[in-house]
Amino acid sequence: MDARAGTPAQPSDLIDVDQVVGAYYDLAPDPDDPAQQVVFGTSGHRGSSLDHAFNEAHIVAITAAIVEYRRDQGTDGPLFIGRDTHALSEPAWRTALEVLAAAEVDVMVDARDSWTPTPAVSQSILLHNQTRFAEGTPGLAAPGSGLADGIVVTPSHNPPRDGGFKYNPPHGGPAGSDATGWIADRANEILRTGVGQVKRVPLETALAADSTHRHDYLSTYVDDLSNVLDLEAIRTSGVRIGADPLGGASVEYWAAIAERYDLDLTVVNPQVDPRWSFMTLDWDGKIRMDCSSSYAMASLVEKMAADAPFDIATGNDADSDRHGIVTADGLMNPNHFLAVAIEYLFGGARPSWPAGAAVGKTLVSSALIDRVAAGLDRRLVEVPVGFKWFVPGLLSGEVGFGGEESAGASFLRKDGRVWSTDKDGILLALLASEILATTGRSPSEHHAAQVERHGQSWYARVDAAATREQKARLGALAPSDVTSTTLAGQDITATLTEAPGNGAKIGGLKVTTADAWFAARPSGTEDVYKIYAESFVSAEHLAEVQDAAKTLVGEVLG
């Protein structure tokens, strides 16, 4: 924990935008250095131009690989492309457009020449593809049917020095490892052979090309919100909403939502600054637009505590795929709000949803969700980390709500059809106001009632040191490798290396007892493994679970 966590950023904390953007164009990656190669995580390729990890060569190579991939897959419809407010996002967007136009790919750029939230890209892809869904199946029509896909240029909540680039295939959600693996391998091959071989056109030519089209992402998204949320209830109740875009892509969307639906909604801070000079520092002293962090959200929390100008205050990260909910009781834990949202939506707020629609959660999300789902008599689908695992269920309607502990979620339209297959922070933020408007109680009050019924839990994530070899062993464990029969004084009830919801490898280990659990997963970027843990006994018992987890994993890894 940095001593300045939660305090306003100082000039020394800010990036030099010209330096970051200049490095994007001036520095070239070493294709033989793993740290400078294209690597797709759960949300695309991320890195900083200053570290030779996000430079023009990377974007040329990734975009060229995507052109080849979509052609091989028979994806011949338009490609929807959006960007957030990071300093590197517009340069990368420009580079991508130059490559896409040269390849004669039909590209849908923002009609306002502005920023586009991740969920708006996902929604536009799905709206285009909705007439191309295969009858009676959860999948899409055959290749060659004019299916659309997309690119979002964003590193999400990452610090201002970073850039990010992710691909969404025709299902509208984050690409799976089969796609990202192929794209990354091909991009790295292009880096090695030389990006100069990739055909490009000047930006002015790309913007004027017949294959480049203007698309009104904002109106398409905002006008459709009434089909997934009860915005009339919010309006008539007079709920006072404070929306803080945290300098991200949702800034103009929130203003448009307020006007379109006549809501008592104030954009708390409409400022956009690629340095994020107005932010408070996160737990480690870095500027990070993490709307689930009490340190990054300190100014909004303080404002609510000081004069309570709003009934609900919300935050979004830079690409608006995450949400933060602030009530009179402070910033809600993401797990707590997910549990409240699930109980509200499945408890009668969406009567037209499919009767068998399941509750989806990642396996590192709170077990409170398990208890809530059981109380609702709803099937629980527990999947590995990564929103991509919810895509098939949301697309088919078999999953009504998919959420992960890092404050990302989406759910079905009122009529049970798919809304988005990527995380939607704007949607979840507005749901908090709907809950207050229709029930008369804030989400934090609903959580207090859940605690009365299901018990209080203590949840945390910590890191433990691990070598590269140990991380590899952790990712390849089998349940039989664990010989312990107890965890922090309780009998072990399950040892998992595959997610029970879909049988997919979790890339680590999860161990459960009657009142506690932990999950251990190797970090993809650092020499540590992450330990997620929860106890329904006490804070002290949580510490015991964390210590026992380190011991158990240490014994297994040797």
Automatic annotation (TrEMBL):
A Gene Ontology molecular function term of the record: phosphoglucomutase activity
Cellular component annotations (GO), alphabetically ordered: cytosol
Pfam families per UniProt: PGM_PMM_I (PF02878), PGM_PMM_II (PF02879), PGM_PMM_III (PF02880), PGM_PMM_IV (PF00408)
SUPFAM superfamilies xref list: Phosphoglucomutase, C-terminal domain, Phosphoglucomutase, first 3 domains
CDD domains in the cross-refs: PGM_like3 (cd05801)
The Alpha-D-phosphohexomutase alpha/beta/alpha domain, residue ranges: 39-190, 220-330, 333-452
Any Gene Ontology biological process: carbohydrate metabolic process
InterPro entries: A-D-PHexomutase_a/b/a-I, A-D-PHexomutase_a/b/a-I/II/III, A-D-PHexomutase_a/b/a-II, A-D-PHexomutase_a/b/a-III, A-D-PHexomutase_C, A-D-PHexomutase_C_sf, A-D-PHexomutase_CS, PGM
Record's keyword terms, sorted: Isomerase, Magnesium, Metal-binding, Phosphoprotein
Gene3D superfamilies, A to Z: Alpha-D-Glucose-1,6-Bisphosphate, subunit A, domain 3, Alpha-D-phosphohexomutase, C-terminal domain
Coiled-coil stretches noted in the UniProt entry, renumbered to this chain: none
Domain named Alpha-D-phosphohexomutase C-terminal: residues: 502-548
Recorded superkingdom: Bacteria
Cofactor or coenzyme needed: Mg(2+)
Matching NCBIfam families: pgm
Family of the protein in this entry: Belongs to the phosphohexose mutase family.
Name of this protein: Phosphoglucomutase, alpha-D-glucose phosphate-specific
Taxonomic source organism: Promicromonospora citrea
